[in-house]
Structure formats: structure tokens, C-alpha cells
């Protein structure tokens, strides 16, 4: 095994973050900067826009529901409030659907595909550029969409089951079995949180597997579980640290948003808002790189990478015949095709 790839299997918690940072700021930075501008930056703007629009509409919906409860049905304002609620719920549904299709299915999954492929090319090593990445990753993106939809479906089922169990616990409390209901409710809540964290850790690995290997859907989740053996704690700790960091940044943003109408100077508000947004952008890019490095660490741990050539062959297989050809061969094919036509 090549020394550089052999070194990956021994990377610890802090070393993974350092390795990911070095990849971003290395001579490969031009590629990641282009991916950042074309995919990650619009994705983060969509996240921010979705948060602002959803909060604004949700606030109006809550206020209208409160007003509707305090208004008699024979008042003229009653029907007006009901019409406003219909419009507001419709707008919230449309914006949520657009965010899911454009923000998540589009920019989010495409960003994962592009960054994962770019990091893999870094270790191959395999010369690539942004145009080649954009030409190659749609094939992986299609597989990743299937995996992500399955991830969303499983998560939805888990949430429905959790709500049903909590509802049962509430009914037990209403039936004067308060202590038993609270105990079962706490157990269900703990199991749900732990299960949700572990499932998201598996998804993080499965997303890279769907990009760099032939697996997708349920197969990518099984493959992720196999790769995580021996490195499960490392994957969980990395995921938890990122969740804490994102929570801190998001919490800082909400605190800042609450101070918007205060006596805080607008210049200070804008500077701090830009700081939090840039920090959020950096975390998103670093997170995408880290999850690919983790994938390669797990793969090296299981001795599934025999060297740079094997990783390059894996990417060549992913690229297909056209991607393996050099520019001279492609030019010759185009010339021959034009002559035949």
C-alpha cells in the first residue's frame, strides 16, 4: 500500500480534521473553491432563505390560529383569518417542497457528489478540474438521490413511530398511570435520539459510498455498516462535534436575529451576521470533506485500498470509458466520427 494511503488508516479524531483542512487549502484549493462557489454557496443561501421564510410564515400561522380561536364564527374577520391561513399554509408547503427539490435534492446532494469525487481524486492522485467533476458527478448523483430518498423515508417512519409511542405514553398518563407513562416516555425519547444519531452517522458514510462505489439505496447502508466496523466510535464522535458546531453557529444567528430590532448599530449587526454566515459556509465545506476522508480511513482500515493505482482504477470504473481516455484519444474519436458522418 502507498505510504500516503497507508497513513490514512491510522488517522485519529484531530488528525482527520487537520487532514481535511490541508486538502482544502492545498494546491487542490482551486477545485474546491469552484465547487464552493457553484454549489455550496447557493445551497447555504437556500438554507438561510428557507429558515427566514419558514419562520416568518410559521409565526403568522400561529398568530392567525390564536386569533381564530378568539374570534366568533359569525364575525366577518373569522372567514378572513381562515382564508389567510389557507394561503399561508399553501405558501409554506410550496416553499418547503421547492427547498427539498432544489436545495436538498439539487445543491446538497450534488455538493456531496462533487466534493467526494474531488477528495478521492486528490488521493488517487488523479488530475481533474471543475469541468470534469461537473461532467462526471451526475452519474453518482442519480444513485445518491435514491439513497437519500430512502434515508428520508426511514427517518419519516421512525418519527411517526416515535410520535405514536409518545401519544400512547400521554394516554397512559391520562389513565392515571402517570409514573409508568413518564418512564416509558423517557426510555422512548432516549432510544429515539440515540437511534437518530446513529442512523445519521450511517447516512453520512452511505452518501460517500453511493458516490464512489457501485452501491446505492439499502445496499449503501449495509456497506456503510461494514466499513464502520472498528471505526464506529470515531465516526460518531466526528458527527457529534459537527452537530455541536452547527448548533452553536445557528444559535448565534438566532441570538443575533433577536437583537435586530434592538439598539445594536446596523453596521455591527451586518458584520456579525456575515461572520456567522462565513463560519457556516466553512463548516459545510469542511463537513463534506471530512466525511469523505472518514470513508477513506475506514476503507484503509479494512485494507480495501492496495495503493493509489487501485483507488485510481476505482474512479476510472466510476468515470466509464470516456473518463479514462486522454484528450488525444477523445480528439481522435471525434475526428473519426466526423469523417464517417
UniProtKB/TrEMBL annotation:
It comes from the Eukaryota. Keywords: Membrane, Transmembrane, Transmembrane helix. The chain crosses the membrane at residues 31-53, 148-171, 178-199, 237-260, 266-298. The keyword Membrane applies. PANTHER family: EXPRESSED PROTEIN-RELATED, OS08G0107100 PROTEIN-RELATED. This is Uncharacterized protein. It comes from Stephania japonica.
Amino acid at each position: 500500500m502507498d505510504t500516503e494511503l497507508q497513513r490514512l488508516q491510522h488517522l485519529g479524531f484531530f488528525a482527520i480534521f487537520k487532514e481535511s483542512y490541508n486538502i482544502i487549502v492545498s494546491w487542490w484549493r482551486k477545485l474546491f473553491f469552484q465547487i464552493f462557489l457553484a454549489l455550496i454557496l447557493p445551497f447555504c443561501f437556500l438554507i438561510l432563505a428557507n429558515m427566514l421564510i419558514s419562520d416568518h410564515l410559521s409565526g403568522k400561522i400561529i398568530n392567525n390560529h390564536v386569533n381564530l380561536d378568539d374570534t366568533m364564527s359569525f364575525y366577518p374577520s373569522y372567514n378572513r383569518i381562515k382564508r389567510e391561513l389557507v394561503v399561508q399554509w399553501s405558501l409554506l408547503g410550496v416553499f418547503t417542497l421547492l427547498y427539498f427539490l432544489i436545495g436538498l435534492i439539487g445543491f446538497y446532494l450534488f455538493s456531496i457528489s462533487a466534493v467526494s469525487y474531488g477528495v478521492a481524486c486528490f488521493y488517487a492522485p488523479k488530475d481533474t478540474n471543475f469541468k470534469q467533476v461537473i461532467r462526471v458527478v451526475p452519474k453518482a448523483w442519480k444513485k445518491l438521490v435514491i439513497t437519500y430518498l430512502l434515508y428520508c423515508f426511514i427517518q419519516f417512519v421512525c418519527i411517526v413511530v416515535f410520535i405514536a409511542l409518545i401519544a400512547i405514553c400521554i394516554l397512559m398518563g391520562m389513565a392515571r398511570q402517570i409514573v409508568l407513562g413518564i418512564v416509558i416516555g423517557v426510555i422512548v425519547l432516549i432510544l429515539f435520539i440515540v437511534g437518530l444519531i446513529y442512523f445519521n452517522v450511517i447516512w453520512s458514510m452511505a452518501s460517500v459510498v453511493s458516490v464512489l462505489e457501485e452501491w446505492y439505496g439499502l445496499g449503501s447502508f449495509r456497506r456503510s455498516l461494514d466499513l464502520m466496523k472498528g471505526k464506529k466510535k470515531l465516526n460518531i464522535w466526528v458527527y457529534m462535534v459537527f452537530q455541536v458546531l452547527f448548533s452553536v453557529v445557528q444559535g448565534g444567528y438566532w441570538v443575533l436575529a433577536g437583537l435586530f430590532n434592538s439598539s445594536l448599530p446596523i453596521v455591527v449587526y451586518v458584520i456579525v451576521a456575515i461572520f456567522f454566515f462565513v463560519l457556516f459556509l466553512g463548516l459545510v465545506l469542511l463537513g463534506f470533506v471530512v466525511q469523505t476522508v472518514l470513508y477513506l480511513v475506514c476503507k484503509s482500515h479494512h485494507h480495501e485500498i492496495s495503493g493509489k493505482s487501485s483507488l485510481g482504477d476505482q474512479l476510472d470504473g466510476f468515470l466509464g470509458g470516456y473518463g479514462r481516455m486522454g484528450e488525444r484519444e477523445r480528439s481522435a474519436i471525434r475526428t473519426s466520427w466526423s469523417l464517417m458522418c
